[in-house]
Amino acid sequence: MSQMSRPCQMMLLVNPQSGKGQALTLYNNHIQRMLNEAGIKHTLVITERQNHAREMVKEADLSQWDALVIMSGDGLLYEVINGLLERPDWEEAIRTPLGILPGGSGNALAASIHHYSGASPVTSEELLVSCGFLLCKGLVSHMDMVSVHLCSSPRLFSFLSLAWGFVADVDIESEKYRHFGAVRFTIGTLVRLASLRVYKGRLAYLPATRDHNSEEALRSNTMLCKDRVPPVTLPAVRDSSFHNSCHSNNSLKVRRVESTPSRSVTKALPGPHDSLLPPLDQPLPDDWVVVPEEDFVLMLAMYQSHLAEDLLAAPEATPDDGVIHLFYVRAGISPTALLRLFLAMEKGAHLTTNCQHLVYTKVRALRLEPYSPKGIITVDGEVVEYGPVQAAVHRGLSRLITG
Ligand code: ADP
Ligand code: MG
To answer: Ligand 1 pocket: which residues have CB below 6 Å?
Structure first.
Protein backbone atom coordinates (compact mmCIF):
# COMPACT_ATOMS: atom_id res chain seq x y z
CA MET A 1 0.00 0.00 0.00
CA SER A 2 1.64 3.23 -1.09
CA GLN A 3 1.51 6.57 0.67
CA MET A 4 0.42 9.93 -0.58
CA SER A 5 2.26 13.09 0.32
CA ARG A 6 -0.84 14.87 1.60
CA PRO A 7 -3.29 13.96 4.36
CA CYS A 8 -6.73 12.53 3.60
CA GLN A 9 -9.08 15.07 2.03
CA MET A 10 -12.80 14.63 2.33
CA MET A 11 -15.44 16.59 0.46
CA LEU A 12 -18.35 17.02 2.87
CA LEU A 13 -21.53 17.96 1.03
CA VAL A 14 -24.25 19.44 3.24
CA ASN A 15 -27.82 20.10 2.16
CA PRO A 16 -28.94 22.99 4.40
CA GLN A 17 -32.58 22.34 3.48
CA SER A 18 -32.72 18.63 4.36
CA GLY A 19 -34.84 17.35 7.22
CA LYS A 20 -35.77 20.09 9.65
CA GLY A 21 -33.25 22.38 7.95
CA GLN A 22 -30.71 21.66 10.70
CA ALA A 23 -27.93 19.88 8.84
CA LEU A 24 -25.50 22.79 9.18
CA THR A 25 -26.23 23.20 12.89
CA LEU A 26 -25.70 19.46 13.38
CA TYR A 27 -22.41 19.75 11.51
CA ASN A 28 -21.28 22.63 13.74
CA ASN A 29 -22.38 20.94 16.96
CA HIS A 30 -21.09 17.43 16.34
CA ILE A 31 -19.23 16.65 13.18
CA GLN A 32 -16.69 19.43 12.75
CA ARG A 33 -15.00 18.62 16.06
CA MET A 34 -15.10 14.86 15.50
CA LEU A 35 -13.39 15.14 12.13
CA ASN A 36 -10.82 17.59 13.45
CA GLU A 37 -10.00 15.35 16.40
CA ALA A 38 -9.63 12.40 14.05
CA GLY A 39 -7.25 14.46 11.90
CA ILE A 40 -9.49 14.23 8.85
CA LYS A 41 -9.22 17.27 6.63
CA HIS A 42 -12.45 18.15 4.99
CA THR A 43 -13.88 20.84 2.78
CA LEU A 44 -17.44 21.83 3.46
CA VAL A 45 -19.61 22.24 0.37
CA ILE A 46 -23.08 23.62 1.03
CA THR A 47 -25.52 22.76 -1.74
CA GLU A 48 -27.50 25.65 -3.16
CA ARG A 49 -30.25 23.80 -4.97
CA GLN A 50 -31.42 20.40 -6.14
CA ASN A 51 -28.91 18.75 -8.51
CA HIS A 52 -26.11 21.10 -7.48
CA ALA A 53 -24.20 18.17 -5.94
CA ARG A 54 -24.91 15.99 -8.96
CA GLU A 55 -23.47 18.57 -11.37
CA MET A 56 -20.51 19.22 -9.12
CA VAL A 57 -19.38 15.61 -8.77
CA LYS A 58 -19.92 15.10 -12.49
CA GLU A 59 -17.27 17.72 -13.22
CA ALA A 60 -15.03 17.42 -10.13
CA ASP A 61 -11.36 16.50 -10.24
CA LEU A 62 -11.79 13.38 -8.13
CA SER A 63 -8.05 12.90 -7.71
CA GLN A 64 -8.31 15.75 -5.17
CA TRP A 65 -10.67 13.82 -2.94
CA ASP A 66 -10.20 10.69 -0.88
CA ALA A 67 -13.88 10.43 -0.02
CA LEU A 68 -17.17 12.13 -0.81
CA VAL A 69 -19.32 12.39 2.30
CA ILE A 70 -22.94 13.47 2.32
CA MET A 71 -24.60 15.14 5.27
CA SER A 72 -28.27 15.17 4.36
CA GLY A 73 -30.94 12.56 3.79
CA ASP A 74 -30.65 9.79 1.21
CA GLY A 75 -31.67 12.16 -1.59
CA LEU A 76 -28.32 13.92 -1.74
CA LEU A 77 -26.37 10.65 -2.00
CA TYR A 78 -28.70 9.64 -4.83
CA GLU A 79 -27.62 12.81 -6.65
CA VAL A 80 -23.94 12.11 -6.02
CA ILE A 81 -24.10 8.49 -7.18
CA ASN A 82 -25.89 9.43 -10.36
CA GLY A 83 -23.42 12.27 -11.00
CA LEU A 84 -20.50 9.85 -10.63
CA LEU A 85 -22.07 7.30 -12.97
CA GLU A 86 -22.73 9.94 -15.63
CA ARG A 87 -19.02 10.63 -15.98
CA PRO A 88 -17.03 9.23 -18.90
CA ASP A 89 -14.60 7.84 -16.28
CA TRP A 90 -17.51 6.34 -14.27
CA GLU A 91 -15.71 3.09 -13.60
CA GLU A 92 -13.00 4.85 -11.62
CA ALA A 93 -15.29 7.60 -10.28
CA ILE A 94 -17.79 5.23 -8.64
CA ARG A 95 -14.94 3.66 -6.67
CA THR A 96 -14.41 6.89 -4.75
CA PRO A 97 -15.32 5.98 -1.15
CA LEU A 98 -18.69 7.44 -0.18
CA GLY A 99 -19.86 8.29 3.30
CA ILE A 100 -23.12 9.44 4.80
CA LEU A 101 -24.05 11.36 7.94
CA PRO A 102 -27.74 11.56 8.80
CA GLY A 103 -28.88 15.15 8.37
CA GLY A 104 -32.20 14.66 6.61
CA SER A 105 -35.60 13.23 7.39
CA GLY A 106 -35.02 10.03 5.42
CA ASN A 107 -31.74 8.64 6.75
CA ALA A 108 -32.09 5.03 5.68
CA LEU A 109 -28.52 4.40 4.56
CA ALA A 110 -27.10 5.96 7.73
CA ALA A 111 -29.38 3.71 9.81
CA SER A 112 -28.28 0.73 7.71
CA ILE A 113 -24.59 1.48 8.27
CA HIS A 114 -25.21 1.75 12.01
CA HIS A 115 -27.06 -1.60 11.87
CA TYR A 116 -24.24 -3.30 9.93
CA SER A 117 -21.83 -2.23 12.70
CA GLY A 118 -23.76 -4.49 15.08
CA ALA A 119 -24.71 -1.70 17.48
CA SER A 120 -28.19 -1.58 19.00
CA PRO A 121 -30.69 0.70 17.27
CA VAL A 122 -30.59 4.46 17.83
CA THR A 123 -32.16 7.44 16.07
CA SER A 124 -31.70 11.20 15.66
CA GLU A 125 -28.54 12.75 17.10
CA GLU A 126 -27.35 9.46 18.58
CA LEU A 127 -27.42 8.02 15.07
CA LEU A 128 -25.45 11.00 13.82
CA VAL A 129 -22.78 10.57 16.48
CA SER A 130 -22.53 6.84 15.72
CA CYS A 131 -22.19 7.50 11.99
CA GLY A 132 -19.60 10.19 12.75
CA PHE A 133 -17.48 7.66 14.65
CA LEU A 134 -17.86 5.04 11.93
CA LEU A 135 -16.81 7.63 9.36
CA CYS A 136 -13.72 8.49 11.41
CA LYS A 137 -12.83 4.78 11.68
CA GLY A 138 -12.97 4.78 7.91
CA LEU A 139 -13.30 1.13 6.95
CA VAL A 140 -14.59 0.73 3.42
CA SER A 141 -16.97 -1.95 2.12
CA HIS A 142 -18.28 -2.55 -1.34
CA MET A 143 -21.86 -1.48 -1.97
CA ASP A 144 -24.29 -2.81 -4.57
CA MET A 145 -25.80 -0.42 -7.08
CA VAL A 146 -29.07 -1.06 -8.85
CA SER A 147 -29.61 0.28 -12.35
CA VAL A 148 -33.15 1.46 -13.02
CA HIS A 149 -34.67 1.70 -16.49
CA LEU A 150 -37.73 3.85 -17.09
CA CYS A 151 -39.81 4.40 -20.19
CA SER A 152 -38.39 7.64 -21.52
CA SER A 153 -35.98 8.93 -18.84
CA PRO A 154 -32.29 8.08 -18.95
CA ARG A 155 -31.16 5.10 -16.89
CA LEU A 156 -30.75 5.85 -13.18
CA PHE A 157 -28.76 4.31 -10.38
CA SER A 158 -30.07 3.50 -6.96
CA PHE A 159 -28.36 2.42 -3.72
CA LEU A 160 -31.36 1.97 -1.44
CA SER A 161 -34.84 1.22 -2.69
CA LEU A 162 -37.41 1.15 -5.46
CA ALA A 163 -40.99 1.58 -4.29
CA TRP A 164 -44.50 1.61 -5.71
CA GLY A 165 -47.84 1.77 -3.95
CA PHE A 166 -48.24 2.42 -0.25
CA VAL A 167 -44.57 3.07 0.61
CA ALA A 168 -43.95 5.40 -2.35
CA ASP A 169 -47.16 7.33 -1.65
CA VAL A 170 -46.31 7.75 2.05
CA ASP A 171 -42.78 8.87 1.24
CA ILE A 172 -43.89 11.59 -1.14
CA GLU A 173 -47.13 12.62 0.55
CA SER A 174 -45.23 13.03 3.83
CA GLU A 175 -42.84 15.59 2.30
CA LYS A 176 -45.20 18.25 3.64
CA TYR A 177 -44.44 17.08 7.19
CA ARG A 178 -40.69 17.42 6.57
CA HIS A 179 -40.24 19.86 9.46
CA PHE A 180 -41.20 17.04 11.86
CA GLY A 181 -38.04 15.16 10.82
CA ALA A 182 -38.15 11.36 10.67
CA VAL A 183 -41.60 11.34 12.35
CA ARG A 184 -42.95 12.48 8.96
CA PHE A 185 -43.15 8.83 7.85
CA THR A 186 -45.23 7.80 10.87
CA ILE A 187 -47.68 10.62 10.24
CA GLY A 188 -47.79 9.81 6.52
CA THR A 189 -48.36 6.11 7.24
CA LEU A 190 -51.34 6.81 9.48
CA VAL A 191 -52.87 9.21 6.95
CA ARG A 192 -52.51 6.72 4.06
CA LEU A 193 -53.76 3.78 6.16
CA ALA A 194 -57.01 5.66 6.61
CA SER A 195 -57.52 5.59 2.84
CA LEU A 196 -55.80 2.39 1.80
CA ARG A 197 -55.68 1.87 -1.98
CA VAL A 198 -55.18 -1.03 -4.35
CA TYR A 199 -52.50 -0.66 -7.04
CA LYS A 200 -52.86 -2.77 -10.17
CA GLY A 201 -49.97 -3.95 -12.26
CA ARG A 202 -47.78 -6.79 -13.44
CA LEU A 203 -44.68 -7.74 -11.46
CA ALA A 204 -41.96 -10.11 -12.62
CA TYR A 205 -38.50 -10.94 -11.32
CA LEU A 206 -35.36 -12.93 -11.92
CA PRO A 207 -34.84 -15.04 -8.79
CA ALA A 208 -31.47 -14.89 -7.03
CA THR A 209 -30.39 -18.50 -6.82
CA ARG A 210 -27.36 -19.73 -4.93
CA ASP A 211 -25.81 -20.59 -8.31
CA HIS A 212 -26.20 -17.04 -9.48
CA ASN A 213 -24.55 -15.70 -6.40
CA SER A 214 -21.55 -17.98 -6.50
CA GLU A 215 -21.24 -17.49 -10.25
CA GLU A 216 -21.31 -13.74 -9.70
CA ALA A 217 -18.76 -13.98 -6.94
CA LEU A 218 -16.44 -15.94 -9.24
CA ARG A 219 -16.92 -13.58 -12.16
CA SER A 220 -16.05 -10.56 -10.13
CA ASN A 221 -13.70 -12.30 -7.78
CA THR A 222 -11.69 -9.31 -6.59
CA MET A 223 -14.48 -6.85 -6.40
CA LEU A 224 -16.85 -8.28 -3.88
CA CYS A 225 -15.58 -10.35 -1.10
CA LYS A 226 -14.92 -8.35 2.01
CA ASP A 227 -13.43 -11.45 3.55
CA ARG A 228 -10.86 -11.70 0.78
CA VAL A 229 -10.22 -7.99 0.31
CA PRO A 230 -8.93 -6.43 3.50
CA PRO A 231 -10.88 -3.30 4.31
CA VAL A 232 -9.11 0.00 3.71
CA THR A 233 -8.76 2.46 6.56
CA LEU A 234 -8.63 6.22 6.76
CA PRO A 235 -5.24 7.67 7.74
CA ALA A 236 -6.48 8.52 11.19
CA VAL A 237 -6.49 4.81 11.96
CA ARG A 238 -3.84 3.37 9.73
CA ASP A 239 -1.15 5.71 8.59
CA SER A 240 -1.87 5.32 4.93
CA SER A 241 -3.80 7.36 2.45
CA PHE A 242 -7.36 6.44 1.95
CA HIS A 243 -7.85 7.34 -1.66
CA ASN A 244 -4.44 6.29 -2.84
CA SER A 245 -4.72 2.97 -1.12
CA CYS A 246 -8.11 2.42 -2.73
CA HIS A 247 -7.06 3.38 -6.19
CA SER A 248 -3.62 1.89 -6.28
CA ASN A 249 -4.51 -1.47 -4.85
CA ASN A 250 -4.89 -3.77 -7.82
CA SER A 251 -6.77 -6.33 -5.82
CA LEU A 252 -9.62 -3.87 -5.54
CA LYS A 253 -9.93 -3.09 -9.23
CA VAL A 254 -13.34 -3.78 -10.67
CA ARG A 255 -13.09 -6.29 -13.44
CA ARG A 256 -15.91 -5.94 -15.88
CA VAL A 257 -17.07 -9.21 -17.32
CA GLU A 258 -19.62 -9.22 -20.08
CA SER A 259 -22.09 -12.04 -19.89
CA THR A 260 -23.68 -13.47 -22.99
CA PRO A 261 -25.91 -12.97 -24.79
CA SER A 262 -25.86 -9.19 -24.63
CA ARG A 263 -29.38 -7.80 -24.45
CA SER A 264 -28.72 -4.32 -23.20
CA VAL A 265 -30.09 -1.14 -24.67
CA THR A 266 -27.68 1.09 -22.77
CA LYS A 267 -24.35 0.21 -24.31
CA ALA A 268 -23.48 3.67 -25.52
CA LEU A 269 -24.15 5.38 -22.19
CA PRO A 270 -21.69 5.69 -19.33
CA GLY A 271 -22.15 3.18 -16.54
CA PRO A 272 -22.09 -0.61 -16.34
CA HIS A 273 -23.56 -2.88 -18.95
CA ASP A 274 -27.00 -4.30 -18.05
CA SER A 275 -26.77 -7.89 -19.22
CA LEU A 276 -29.84 -9.09 -17.28
CA LEU A 277 -32.39 -6.70 -18.75
CA PRO A 278 -33.99 -6.86 -22.18
CA PRO A 279 -35.36 -3.54 -23.48
CA LEU A 280 -38.38 -2.47 -21.44
CA ASP A 281 -40.81 -3.06 -24.32
CA GLN A 282 -39.51 -6.59 -25.04
CA PRO A 283 -40.75 -9.83 -23.44
CA LEU A 284 -38.84 -11.22 -20.48
CA PRO A 285 -36.63 -14.32 -20.74
CA ASP A 286 -38.02 -17.70 -19.62
CA ASP A 287 -36.05 -17.80 -16.40
CA TRP A 288 -38.05 -14.84 -15.00
CA VAL A 289 -40.99 -15.45 -12.67
CA VAL A 290 -44.24 -13.58 -13.27
CA VAL A 291 -46.14 -12.92 -10.05
CA PRO A 292 -49.69 -14.34 -10.37
CA GLU A 293 -51.33 -11.46 -8.49
CA GLU A 294 -52.12 -8.19 -10.23
CA ASP A 295 -53.65 -6.35 -7.25
CA PHE A 296 -51.15 -4.97 -4.76
CA VAL A 297 -50.97 -2.67 -1.78
CA LEU A 298 -47.25 -2.16 -2.17
CA MET A 299 -44.11 -3.28 -3.94
CA LEU A 300 -40.81 -2.53 -2.24
CA ALA A 301 -37.37 -3.51 -3.51
CA MET A 302 -34.61 -2.93 -0.93
CA TYR A 303 -30.85 -3.35 -1.15
CA GLN A 304 -29.92 -1.97 2.27
CA SER A 305 -31.35 -3.04 5.61
CA HIS A 306 -33.30 0.10 6.55
CA LEU A 307 -36.14 1.88 4.80
CA ALA A 308 -36.05 4.69 7.37
CA GLU A 309 -34.22 5.34 10.64
CA ASP A 310 -36.65 3.13 12.52
CA LEU A 311 -37.74 0.66 9.81
CA LEU A 312 -35.64 -2.49 9.46
CA ALA A 313 -37.27 -3.59 6.22
CA ALA A 314 -34.66 -6.08 4.98
CA PRO A 315 -33.01 -7.57 8.08
CA GLU A 316 -30.86 -9.93 6.03
CA ALA A 317 -29.48 -7.30 3.66
CA THR A 318 -25.80 -6.45 3.66
CA PRO A 319 -24.24 -3.68 1.56
CA ASP A 320 -22.81 -6.00 -1.05
CA ASP A 321 -24.88 -9.21 -1.05
CA GLY A 322 -25.67 -8.78 -4.73
CA VAL A 323 -29.35 -9.23 -3.96
CA ILE A 324 -32.49 -7.14 -4.34
CA HIS A 325 -34.76 -7.95 -1.40
CA LEU A 326 -38.20 -7.83 -2.99
CA PHE A 327 -41.34 -7.44 -0.90
CA TYR A 328 -44.89 -7.12 -2.04
CA VAL A 329 -48.16 -6.99 -0.18
CA ARG A 330 -51.20 -8.42 -1.93
CA ALA A 331 -54.46 -6.52 -1.96
CA GLY A 332 -57.00 -7.68 0.62
CA ILE A 333 -54.91 -6.88 3.69
CA SER A 334 -56.80 -4.86 6.28
CA PRO A 335 -55.46 -1.48 7.41
CA THR A 336 -54.95 -2.94 10.90
CA ALA A 337 -52.89 -5.84 9.56
CA LEU A 338 -50.80 -3.47 7.46
CA LEU A 339 -50.20 -1.24 10.47
CA ARG A 340 -49.14 -4.34 12.43
CA LEU A 341 -46.62 -5.13 9.68
CA PHE A 342 -45.07 -1.67 9.84
CA LEU A 343 -44.96 -1.75 13.64
CA ALA A 344 -43.21 -5.13 13.49
CA MET A 345 -40.81 -3.69 10.90
CA GLU A 346 -39.40 -1.36 13.56
CA LYS A 347 -37.65 -4.44 14.94
CA GLY A 348 -37.33 -6.24 11.62
CA ALA A 349 -39.96 -8.75 12.81
CA HIS A 350 -42.49 -8.31 9.98
CA LEU A 351 -41.33 -11.48 8.21
CA THR A 352 -42.12 -13.58 11.25
CA THR A 353 -45.65 -12.27 11.77
CA ASN A 354 -47.09 -14.91 9.41
CA CYS A 355 -48.91 -12.28 7.39
CA GLN A 356 -50.50 -14.14 4.46
CA HIS A 357 -50.49 -11.02 2.31
CA LEU A 358 -46.77 -10.31 2.55
CA VAL A 359 -44.39 -11.98 0.08
CA TYR A 360 -40.61 -11.73 0.34
CA THR A 361 -38.14 -13.05 -2.17
CA LYS A 362 -34.55 -12.40 -3.18
CA VAL A 363 -34.03 -11.40 -6.80
CA ARG A 364 -31.37 -10.07 -9.16
CA ALA A 365 -33.67 -8.09 -11.39
CA LEU A 366 -37.33 -7.10 -11.59
CA ARG A 367 -39.85 -5.48 -13.87
CA LEU A 368 -43.03 -3.67 -12.85
CA GLU A 369 -45.73 -2.56 -15.28
CA PRO A 370 -48.35 -0.50 -13.46
CA TYR A 371 -51.76 -0.52 -15.17
CA SER A 372 -52.94 2.83 -13.85
CA PRO A 373 -51.84 5.84 -15.89
CA LYS A 374 -50.95 7.95 -12.85
CA GLY A 375 -49.15 7.21 -9.63
CA ILE A 376 -45.88 7.46 -7.73
CA ILE A 377 -42.72 5.43 -8.12
CA THR A 378 -39.73 6.32 -5.97
CA VAL A 379 -36.07 5.49 -6.30
CA ASP A 380 -34.13 6.06 -3.05
CA GLY A 381 -37.08 8.12 -1.86
CA GLU A 382 -37.05 10.43 -4.91
CA VAL A 383 -39.93 10.55 -7.41
CA VAL A 384 -39.11 9.18 -10.87
CA GLU A 385 -41.10 8.90 -14.08
CA TYR A 386 -44.29 6.88 -13.54
CA GLY A 387 -44.86 3.86 -15.77
CA PRO A 388 -43.08 0.60 -16.60
CA VAL A 389 -39.82 0.24 -14.71
CA GLN A 390 -37.17 -2.43 -14.51
CA ALA A 391 -34.07 -2.79 -12.40
CA ALA A 392 -31.03 -5.02 -12.01
CA VAL A 393 -28.37 -5.29 -9.35
CA HIS A 394 -24.66 -4.63 -9.94
CA ARG A 395 -22.88 -6.28 -7.12
CA GLY A 396 -20.33 -4.24 -5.19
CA LEU A 397 -20.02 -1.55 -7.84
CA SER A 398 -19.47 1.33 -5.42
CA ARG A 399 -17.62 1.74 -2.14
CA LEU A 400 -19.08 2.83 1.15
CA ILE A 401 -17.42 3.90 4.38
CA THR A 402 -19.05 1.59 6.93
CA GLY A 403 -16.56 1.85 9.82
P1 ADP B 1 -34.54 14.62 3.26
O2 ADP B 1 -34.22 13.32 3.91
O3 ADP B 1 -34.87 15.64 4.28
O4 ADP B 1 -35.58 14.45 2.21
P5 ADP B 1 -32.59 14.72 1.15
O6 ADP B 1 -31.11 14.61 1.25
O7 ADP B 1 -33.29 13.51 0.67
O8 ADP B 1 -33.19 15.14 2.56
O9 ADP B 1 -32.89 15.98 0.23
C10 ADP B 1 -34.18 16.31 -0.17
C11 ADP B 1 -34.13 16.88 -1.57
O12 ADP B 1 -33.45 18.12 -1.59
C13 ADP B 1 -33.39 16.00 -2.57
O14 ADP B 1 -34.20 15.88 -3.71
C15 ADP B 1 -32.13 16.78 -2.89
O16 ADP B 1 -31.74 16.54 -4.21
C17 ADP B 1 -32.61 18.20 -2.74
N18 ADP B 1 -31.57 19.22 -2.44
C19 ADP B 1 -30.24 19.08 -2.27
N20 ADP B 1 -29.66 20.27 -1.94
C21 ADP B 1 -30.67 21.19 -1.90
C22 ADP B 1 -30.73 22.59 -1.62
N23 ADP B 1 -29.65 23.28 -1.29
N24 ADP B 1 -31.94 23.20 -1.67
C25 ADP B 1 -33.05 22.50 -1.97
N26 ADP B 1 -33.07 21.18 -2.24
C27 ADP B 1 -31.89 20.52 -2.21
MG1 MG C 1 -35.12 12.39 0.85
So the answer is: 15-19, 47-50, 52, 72-76, 79, 104-106, 178, 381-382
